[in-house]
Amino acid sequence: xxxxxxxxxxxxxxxxxxxxxxxxxxxxxxxxxxxxxxxxxxxxxxxxxxxxxxxxxxxxxxxxxxxxxxxxxxxxxxxxxxxxxxxxxxxxxxxxxxxxxxxxxxxxxxxxxxxxxxxxxxxxxxxxxxxxxxxxxxxxxxxxxxxxxxxxxxxxxxxxxxxxxxxxxxxxxxxxxxxxxxxxxxxxxxxxxxxxxxxxxxxxxxxxxxxxxxxxxxxxxxxxxxxxxxxxxxxxxxxxxxxxxxxxxxxxxxxxxxxxxxxxxxxxxxxxxxxxxxxxxxxxxxxxxxxxxxxxxxxxxxxxxxxxxxxxxxxxxxxxxxxxxxxxxxxxxxxxxxxxxxxxxxxxxxxxxxxxxxxxxxxxxxxxxxxxxxxxxxxxxxxxxxxxxxxxxxxxxxxxxxxxxxxxxxxxxxxxxxxxxxx
Length: 423
Description:
By secondary structure, the chain is an alpha/beta fold. 36% of the residues lie in helices and 12% in strands.
């Protein structure tokens, strides 16, 4: 039985040791959804917990803050405890709050403390633009221009060399902010190695985990990472605009948040309405405003599914699916000028694969016309994420069968090679 056959793909679905939770999600019949690294699909559990929180508002009104199954006043901490096993943290070290960028602002405002010659922030040139905007903004607030932002260069435009990052950890660096997984190539950075190197040089380090949480195993506490932040709508399937999350290592508990707000208060003192801020003793101190209860609600159900499956099993199944993707590229697309830009080694590859092709934008449009949902990244990138929770080996095979047909028939040529408003 050849690997590039539907029969083989179906046999993998029947025999693979770790089953998906596909039945727990809303899957559109006849549609192959490989964009879960941008927005995960809705699970039935997420829908249920959203309705549950709507019901508590309906039933209790303002008393929903302290009454009902999921009292709103403690919701951020409850979700933090659910999230902690997924990122390898103690439950007190994680809080669900804000958004990716607002949490980055909070953490940099807290831990970026320029002094003497240590005034620079170290990042990389492949990072997601929003992080760079925030870092430049934080520098400006401290009176520095962007010459104080070091961006480590990529040698090939796709991946970062960790030795280059370490070499840039000079005695001028006050703070380091790096991605856990690069959003284009899917490269995993060795967070443990980089954290150790930073701490050997007395530099604080944090990570953007938007493209790694829910697809990669982390041990943030044991790795001694100072802080991290991430969104919850990609691999975690929390829904569009779902509330973000952050991690602060317990060794930093008691550090005053750079941006103080009333929901960062010690809960026992929050409603005394004192003008003296008394922060919570744990990661909850880094909250700013009132929780976005309805944007947090789907996470209650979504995270249940993760903790039932176990992040180690999620990772193992994810790698099996992306291994099969890479095999299909090799077996079925060899003559069509696709370039694989993702690392092939398991310890270096996250939850998606990244291909480049000169006609990428219109190939993506042709795929969507055939009910395959990819993700285009300008100028010529195609990201494909086979999500462990709900995608199948059969879908992987069918995707590449369709893609091969699109290339053979040149069906993509009827489309313009320009991205849509949302890539």
